């Protein structure tokens, strides 16, 4: 009942407030100061962005007329926020920097702090978290020095936002509580709504749904005015996500559908992307067709707006959904598009730099050729003059000899300079190639670090669990994460960026698993691994299969008795390999139904074997034996070598 009342309030208040916005709440002819222009721009910023831009430009003219430099900067910030809402981050950053220069020239520290936060928001939207947090702390320092309560509140909120965007909920909550403390001392503002929204997100992530709904509903009720429509949509979407996590998907979808209509009415594509993504996640694997439908709309919109990071994120989600349906052809198409965008995104600037160096090189060659032709022309002219003055042949010959020697010396010096320039250009190109290879290693390093964080979080959670089954599940998940992290660790620690030496990798996995079960004294391993390097994708799958098989053996094969686990990886010819994992334990009680076993470990082994395209055979005679025949993925290119 309460939910239906909330939806009714949302609909009625939307119609009422939108109607009010169209009635012209402020008479533009009576604008007598820059504050009135700012209020008018804020009113239309979401409702009619074009009108908001028009009034902001009028405000700039008014400020110039009255020689109000701070007024010009204020209107530039409003124009930047309009660009920000439309996803034009480069344009918004340019306007913010212009405003910053004006404030610095005027010595307006409060204005400086305000615009620094806006620049930090642009960095945050572009995923540059370190730069964003640095800007926010600079703004906090300025605001504290000026004892600007609103500035301190906004800076603390912004720092919390940056941590929340990285899923650092503990740090995010710390700064958000500080922001709320200052917010209670101030009049209501858009920052108040942002604080309510972020509390809702944090409590949703920590599964405290009652607190999450309290803050989000509070924000929704207070944001139904035109200038806060973007925040209103965000609050509705986050409330819908809380309902979805509670299992009330129909409520969630109803709210998200209304948010989608509203975001399209105000032409705010960022909120539209947010809503489309939320709808897709709500439908999820329960209704993958609907989820893919909304994700594809998000992909098209992100592509239209050149929001390539968002497009990559949605393509990744679609890939997972297609894989869950077994539609690997479509999943591959989506993954190829994602990789193409990633290559373009990471290496676009580098490619432009290389092209610029090539152009400079070609230009230098052209200039050298022009000088060479000029020299030849001069030489021919001297030869003609020589033939014309035969009477002074000795004197002229001596002079010409000196001139020729001088020119030859000069030409040789020029050639040496050009050779030095060419060598410098080649060194620059080599450095760029090395930088690209370093970037690949850095990516692997960061992926490994992120997986290590996940493993640490799993370990921390397992410490507080009392149920043995739950602790065992946490440990197994931690082992799977370690198996994947080990791949990325080896990639960034070695010169190889595309293949993994399997002998060393399998040895480390088995040692880690036996150690994690504290079974070094009773369980021994026999490894017979061919000297082979496999592609990263295949290595990950094989590592996970070994992880599941060895884990099952350690858990069930040797009850209170010593045992042996043997692993054999051999080349059987024609790019085919045989993986055999065997233990001499008690075997399965129901050996006849091994192929139909629905345990998580066996299900994962079958699923991973299917991804490898391998032939899986499981037998139980004097222990359990798992045999997998698979074909090596052939590499058309040589593996990358780190510089």
UniProtKB/TrEMBL annotation:
Keywords, comma-separated and alphabetical: ATP-binding, Kinase, Membrane, Nucleotide-binding, Phosphoprotein, TPR repeat, Transferase, Transmembrane, Transmembrane helix
What are the TPR repeat spans here? Answer: 113-146
EC assignment: 2.7.13.3
Which parts of the sequence belong to the Histidine kinase/HSP90-like ATPase domain? 537-634
In terms of InterPro entries, this protein maps to: HATPase_C_sf, HATPase_dom, Sig_transdc_His_kin_sub2_dim/P, TPR-like_helical_dom_sf, TPR_rpt
Kindly state which reaction or reactions the protein catalyses.
ATP + protein L-histidine = ADP + protein N-phospho-L-histidine
Mention any Pfam family matching this sequence: TPR_12
Q: A Gene Ontology molecular-function term? A: ATP binding
Membrane-spanning segments: 389-409
Q: Which parts of the chain are coiled coil?
A: none
The record's listing under SMART domains reads: HATPase_c, TPR
What is the protein name given in its UniProt record? histidine kinase
Write down the species: Spirosoma telluris
């Amino acid at each position: 009942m309460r939910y239906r009342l909330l939806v009714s309030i949302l609909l009625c208040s939307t119609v009422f407030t939108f109607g009010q916005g169209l009635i012209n709440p402020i008479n533009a002819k009576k604008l007598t100061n820059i504050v009135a222009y700012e209020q008018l721009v804020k009113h239309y910023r979401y409702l009619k962005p074009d009108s908001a831009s028009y009034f902001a430009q009028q405000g700039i003219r008014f400020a110039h007329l009255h020689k109000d430099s701070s007024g010009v900067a204020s209107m530039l910030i409003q124009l930047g926020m309009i660009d920000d809402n439309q996803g034009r981050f480069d344009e918004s950053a340019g306007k913010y920097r212009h405003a910053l220069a004006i404030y610095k020239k005027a010595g307006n520290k409060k204005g400086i702090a305000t615009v620094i936060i806006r620049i930090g928001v642009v960095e945050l939207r572009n995923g540059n978290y370190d730069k964003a947090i640095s800007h926010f702390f600079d703004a906090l320092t300025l605001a504290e020095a000026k004892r600007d309560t609103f500035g301190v509140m906004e800076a603390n909120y912004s720092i919390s936002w940056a941590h929340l965007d990285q899923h650092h909920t503990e740090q995010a909550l710390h700064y958000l509580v500080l922001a709320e403390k200052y917010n209670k001392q101030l009049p209501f503002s858009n920052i108040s709504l942002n604080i309510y929204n972020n509390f809702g997100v944090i409590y949703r992530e920590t599964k405290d749904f009652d607190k999450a709904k309290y803050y989000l509903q509070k924000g929704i009720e207070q944001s139904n005015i035109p200038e806060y429509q973007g925040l209103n949509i965000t609050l509705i979407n986050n409330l819908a996500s809380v309902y979805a996590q509670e299992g009330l998907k129909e409520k969630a979808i109803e709210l998200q559908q209304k948010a989608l209509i509203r975001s399209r009415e105000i032409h705010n594509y960022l909120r539209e992307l947010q809503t489309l993504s939320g709808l897709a996640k709500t439908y999820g694997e329960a209704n993958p067709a609907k989820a893919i439908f909304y994700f594809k709309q998000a992909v098209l919109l992100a592509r239209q707006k050149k929001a390539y990071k968002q497009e990559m994120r949605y393509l990744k989600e679609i890939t997972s959904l297609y894989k869950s349906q077994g539609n690997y052809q479509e999943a591959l198409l989506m993954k190829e598009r994602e990789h193409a965008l990633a290559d373009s995104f990471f290496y676009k600037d580098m490619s432009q730099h290389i092209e610029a160096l090539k152009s400079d090189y070609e230009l230098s060659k052209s200039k050298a050729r022009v000088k060479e032709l000029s020299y030849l022309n001069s030489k021919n002219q001297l030869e003609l003059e020589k033939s014309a003055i035969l009477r002074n042949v000795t004197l002229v010959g001596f002079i010409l000899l000196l001139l020729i020697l001088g020119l030859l010396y000069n030409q040789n010096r020029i050639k040496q300079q050009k050779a030095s320039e060419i060598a410098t250009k080649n060194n620059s190109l080599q450095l760029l190639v090395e930088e690209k290879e370093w970037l690949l290693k850095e990516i692997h390093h960061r992926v490994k670090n992120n997986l290590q964080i996940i493993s640490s979080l799993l370990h921390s959670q397992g410490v507080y669990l009392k149920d043995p089954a739950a602790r065992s599940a946490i440990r197994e998940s931690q082992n799977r994460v370690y198996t994947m992290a080990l791949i990325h660790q080896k990639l960034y620690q070695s010169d190889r960026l595309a293949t993994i030496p399997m002998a060393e990798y399998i040895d480390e996995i088995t040692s880690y698993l036996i150690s994690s079960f504290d079974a070094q004294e009773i369980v021994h391993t026999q490894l017979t691994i061919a000297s082979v390097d496999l592609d990263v994708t295949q290595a990950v799958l094989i590592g996970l299969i070994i992880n599941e098989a060895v884990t099952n053996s350690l858990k069930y094969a040797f009850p209170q008795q010593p045992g042996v686990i043997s692993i054999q990886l051999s080349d059987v010819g024609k790019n085919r390999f045989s993986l055999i994992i065997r233990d001499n334990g008690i075997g399965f009680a129901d050996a006849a139904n091994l192929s139909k076993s629905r345990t998580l470990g066996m299900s994962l082994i079958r699923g991973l074997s299917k991804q490898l395209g391998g032939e899986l055979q499981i037998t139980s005679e004097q222990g359990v034996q798992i045999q997998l025949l698979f074909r090596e993925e052939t590499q058309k290119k040589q593996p990358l070598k780190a510089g």
